[in-house]
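Hello again,

I reread your note about wanting to compare the complex against the isolated chains. To keep things tidy I'm splitting this into two emails, and this first one only covers the full assembly. Below are the input lines as submitted, including protein chains and any nucleic acid or small-molecule components. They are followed by the predicted structure of everything together. The single-chain runs will come separately.
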Amino acid sequence: MSSNSPFAIPLIHNAVGIMTPFLLAAIGGLYTELAGMLNIALEGLILTGAFFSIVFAAATGSLLLGILLGILCSMALALLFGAITLYLRANVFITGLATNLFASGFTVVLAFQLFKTKGVIQFPDIPRLPVFSVPAALQRIPVIGDILFGHNIIVYATWLIVLVSAIVIYRTPFGLRLRGTGLSGETIVSLGLDPRRYQLAGILISGLTCGLAGAFLTMQLAAFVPEISSGRGWIALVAIYLGNKTPWGIVVASFVFGLAESFSNYAQGIVNVPADFILALPYLITVAAMIVYAIWRHYRASRT
Amino acid sequence: MLTGFTGLALTLVFSFALVIALILLLSKTPGRTIWYFFAGAFTNAYYLGNMLNSAVPLVFTGLAIAVAFKSSVFNLGGEGQVYAGGLAATAVCLALPAANAYLGGFAAMAGAVVVSGILAGLSGFFKMKWNADEMISSFLLSSAIILVVNFFITGPLDDPNNNLLATLPIGKQYALTKIFPPSKLNVSAFFAIATAVLVSFFMARTHAGYEMRMCGLNREFSRYGGISVSKYFVLPMAMGGALNGLAGGLLVLGTYGASIKGFSAGMGWNGIAVALIARNSPLGVIPAALLFAYLEAGAKAAMLHSDVTFEIAAIAQSFIFYFVTAQSLYSLARRRKKP
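Full-complex prediction:
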């Protein structure tokens, strides 16, 4: 470490890695949210992507193929979720729960069928996720060099996705109509368009990003752990709300959560506090951040 | 009404057909697996009683969600509320090792109700006071409290003589009377039915229940009509928390006799499903909980007597969730009725 602050830099560096799956799931979920649908299926979509990407990567021997097929499976489940919700006109809350339940049941049943175990499945032969290499000169920039570089390629792909999303959502006809669907479905109908197409598109995009988020989780471990998504889809939903339903807000909210988790990982080795309390910390910090933000908004609104 | 039933029947037929297809795909002895999955719960008194017993907490968690949904308040913290209620009841019982069974049991239930009621009520309070989304805050608080409960179960209250991750057992006098031995079914089943009736009465026939339902239909209109709407963020949340707490407390006194790590996992989520299947009707929660328990009992029997894993229950449940609220299936059933 070239910095003179050995405590904060690795903390932030790790936070950038930890926030990636949250950020991915949240940015995909943002499309659904803006189209006026509550997407609580993020959790199940992440889990599906996690399972299938590593299984396919092991089967094909190719990291890229594994990730792509994993994303495809996650999108297929998203399609099922969206089609039933929109075209059979089902309650989005319960179909979302169904998707999560289906994913957690199906991955275990399939793991049992394929690997004869319901526990952790290790894939030691999986190639490592390549670290994005930058010129050494950039690497040596103090602070920024330490924080921003040396992550694996999915982290950088995520930043690219966020950037593209900000453009797609605010600068393209598709984004305009997507947001229009959420604000007023009737207007979209009066334009001769079908709002359900935009909602389905939003759901499929969330399937795509959640699939990648899942791949990030299993590829990093080179193993599949049942319920590996462990609440990340829910936290992503929180990040969408905390981030005020904007891409940059979501980046900030995901970073807060990543930092809280990075800090609790760090604190576990240092402070003599029961591990469970430290693990609870990210949730408590997030709820505190959320309430402080709500109070701030409340008083700002009452002053004007 | 009849069309509603036809729609539900259609949903079940659809879902069961998918389950059979799945079993044919996965099992090497599909006939045996299908038999145990669908009829296993009725093959002996033990399975039947345990199935009924596992429906009991779902009635409470289903009611908790139904009350909140009827008031258009979202409580996503069921998981933590049930778990914390269970721990609170255990702690009270452990603190009163030799108390009278009724007084001590009542104190334990009160502890569960208060702890979980406050836990959920907080989210309602944040919403009322600062408009902080109660769905998100209840979920986050619940996720945090689950870890805190884990700490107490495996730490200060851990039973050193038992290698299970569980607290010390509560006093024998607190065990609820079994009503269908050898199964675990106990008197908490009667409490569940009584609670469903009470909640139904409260929502349909009392002033507060009426105001809650009005807030659920249209909060702005209710405010205009002179209802003090802000308190109906807190009340439905706190009531739901209290009901979830009861679910946890009764599980401890009736079924487990201690708090075991993760013993109530899934009950909060399943409560949401139960409430939605029941279309938020407090009395409808009872058959919905039974349907749920039936699927799990079937999967358990199929796992014990055949070659599939328990998790096919989750898949079967998810099929039912997917179709149970599908309006199009119901209108299909309706169209068939009219020539």
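For quick reference: The two ends of chain A are 48 Å apart (CA to CA).

B.
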